[in-house]
UniProtKB/TrEMBL annotation:
GO biological process, one term: CAAX-box protein processing
Enzyme class: hydrolase
Reactions catalysed: Hydrolyzes the peptide bond -P2-(S-farnesyl or geranylgeranyl)C-P1'-P2'-P3'-COOH where P1' and P2' are amino acids with aliphatic sidechains and P3' is any C-terminal residue
Entries under InterPro entries matching the protein: Rce1, Rce1/LyrA-like_dom
UniProt keyword terms in alphabetical order: Endoplasmic reticulum, Hydrolase, Membrane, Protease, Transmembrane, Transmembrane helix
Protein family per UniProt: Belongs to the peptidase U48 family.
Gene: RCE1
GO MF term set: metalloendopeptidase activity
EC number(s) per entry: 3.4.26.1
Parts of the chain that traverse the membrane: 7-28, 89-109, 121-145, 151-172, 179-198
Residue intervals of the CAAX prenyl protease 2/Lysostaphin resistance protein A-like domain: 60-163
Taxon lineage: Eukaryota, Metazoa, Chordata, Craniata, Vertebrata
Protein name in the entry: CAAX prenyl protease 2
Top-level taxon in the UniProt lineage: Eukaryota
């Protein structure tokens, strides 16, 4: 289930670094639009009062702690080891996220209940959310298999919840759109270049799910090596 000490430090740092590289453009956009400079921002981030305020905010706890931990526990740590012996690792990586995407359909009922938009817009938004949550679920499933740890997917999930979906349209209209779009392109390029090296199973020790499949007589070399 990904709870182990072997290789825990690279498993916590490298997948998060990889995800932050993918979000290079949005991070640049966030820094450009932030009214405070780097020193003031660090003071706010490191201030005990800021963390105390976050830890008493139920919405922050839900988005940054509870949802990432419980969803990754259910859809990666529990569901993947059950699906993989039946389907193989490759199909499991793409099947498991479909359940993860459907699990977010409750937002449809919330929006319909409070009439936040038209019915067509609500269902279009739900289809879009299903698509990107399924893609994100496949990514964290890949991380879980390649690292053998749950901590990486949880931290990446928390980071992505904080960042939200990249505001590409706002970037296209930004006063500094050229360097910003270059940051978007560079982030995606570096992510694709570093995806395999930073998730190399050799960095994380033995992989429990791969060992389980080997004992069952199923070897998935592309993901386990």
């Amino acid at each position: 289930m990904g709870f182990r000490l072997e290789g825990i430090f690279p498993a916590a740092l490298l997948p998060l670094l990889l995800t932050m590289i993918l979000f290079l453009g949005p991070l640049m956009q966030l820094s450009m639009d932030c009214p405070c400079d780097l020193a003031d921002g660090l003071k706010v981030v490191l201030a005990p009062r800021s963390w105390a305020r976050c830890l008493t905010d139920m919405r922050w706890l839900r988005n940054q702690v509870i949802a990432p931990l419980t969803e990754e526990l259910v859809f990666r740590a529990c569901m993947l080891p059950m699906l993989a012996p039946c389907t193989g690792l490759g199909p499991a990586v793409f099947t498991c996220p479909l359940f993860f995407g459907v699990a977010h359909f409750h937002h449809i009922f919330e929006q319909l209940r409070f009439r936040q938009s038209s019915v067509g817009s609500i269902f279009l938004s739900a289809a879009f959310q299903f698509s990107y949550t399924a893609v994100f679920g496949a990514y964290t499933a890949f991380l879980f298999i390649r690292t053998g740890h749950l901590i990486g997917p949880v931290l990446c999930h928390s980071f992505c919840n904080y960042m939200g979906f990249p505001a590409v349209c706002a970037a296209l209209e930004h006063p500094q759109r050229r360097p910003l779009l270059a940051g978007y392109a560079l982030g995606v390029g570096l992510f694709l270049l570093l995806l395999q090296p930073l998730t190399d199973p050799k960095l994380y020790g033995s992989l429990p799910l791969c060992v389980l499949l080997e004992r069952a007589g199923d070897s998935e070399a592309p993901l386990c090596s």
